[in-house]
């Protein structure tokens, strides 16, 4: 966004937002751009359902972009995340995830996400101390639960692939 909409989003913020539900928004491609991600510290529940064009949920920017080391970790209050029927979703987290914590996440449900290839980075997986429920159903493109790291860049290594069987039918 080059035209001032980004400034408006930053100034409005969503500091008190606790629950977000998005459904049937077929033109929506990117849910949380880097410009508003830092203002989502109190967000506890997210549900995104039946949005045909969504490609990514959280844009985290480049290393160090827009993030202050002393600020609380992004999404540290998130307890529930539901992503369903998003045929174009390629990634949940785009960019470095070391400034994100899923320490409060209890419930994660993923359904009909055909282009999603992985769920967590190693940084995120380490923060999943309270995760109780992980529901995965009909995610035919899913190859890894956790993506590996190499020299600070996230990559998928073929020699250590996690084998997921019948992922299209749920776990």
From TrEMBL:
Keywords: Plant defense. Coiled coil: none annotated. The keyword Magnesium does not apply. Pfam families: LRR_RPS2 (PF23247). Residues 12-139 form the Disease resistance protein At4g27190-like leucine-rich repeats domain. This is Disease resistance protein At4g27190-like leucine-rich repeats domain-containing protein. It comes from Salix viminalis (Common osier).
